[in-house]
Predict the structure of Band 7 domain-containing protein.
Amino acid sequence: MSEQKQIDREDGVSVSAATENIESGFGVCSWLLIILSVMLIIITLPFSIWTCIKTVKEYERSIVFRLGRILRGGVRGPGLFFILPCTDNFITVDMRTITFDIPLQEVLTKDSVTVSVEGVVYYRVKNATLAVTNINNADAATRLLAQTILRNVLGTKSLAELLSDREQIALSMELSLDETTESWGIKVERVEIKDVKLPQQLQKAMATEAEAAREARAKRPGCERAWEGSNRFHLGREGDSPLTRDAVSKEFDGAPPEQTFRRVDNQAVLAEPREEGPEVGQVITAYGEMNASRALREASMVIAESPAALQLRYLQTLNSIAAEKNSTIVFPLPMEMFPSFMRRSAEPNSYS
């Protein structure tokens, strides 16, 4: 008995305090029934002894009720304890740590992203008396409360916080859950987020973004070797006036060429636009438009010399459109085909 009282004191709630308002004095009828029960045990000895002695395991505690009231002293166990078979009954509580999974919950985050989250909770009964008298089903109540707190806490977090701060979110859930279950005699030991499932479209978008970031990082070492092997490059197409390394650096507002340019087909191309002002981006945009205009002019000259090239371009366009699986395809026809159709429509009907 003294050992059990010490355990209750360590948990912060003593048995006497828990039963102070529950137990009251028995009336005359109650004492009469108790005396009759004791007499019955004495008369039926030694057979009645097997119904009076109960055993409680090391990890269990039993709360004894006599005529519906908790006996003074609270819980019994571990070991043997004595009851009156006609007036007493008892409830045994498991004091070991219990684990349960939080079912998959659909949660709307702070930035309006729907995610599916699973978790796990570890708890144990700290005070058996409170777990029996203050709540009907402590286990079911704890499970439902964990689901509610999970949705409430994650609803205040963004997707980035959910993916990066799982430990902090789990700690916040643990504190909220433990604060509520303390009056039930339950101690929440740990809460963990098992899995976060994102929508398929969001997963694909994040994978594409990560792949693009990896490709950008892979291209950066080439920027540092931009000027290796030659000291002169052309801005634009071959035949333009060449610019030296110093001239290019001066042209782009003193940007370090070894960090800014990369070599592509004998051209100096700005690989990482600097953040100091928009003039660098404007210069590169101007060179790009100039090169694009020249390429379009050459393409028009080739098509003018060879009309079959335009037909091949039509076929290539059809192939690209068919790959997109569109329900409606608008296909342009060359004007040269319309006169032949009009001549045929103007001819008299041979069957008339």
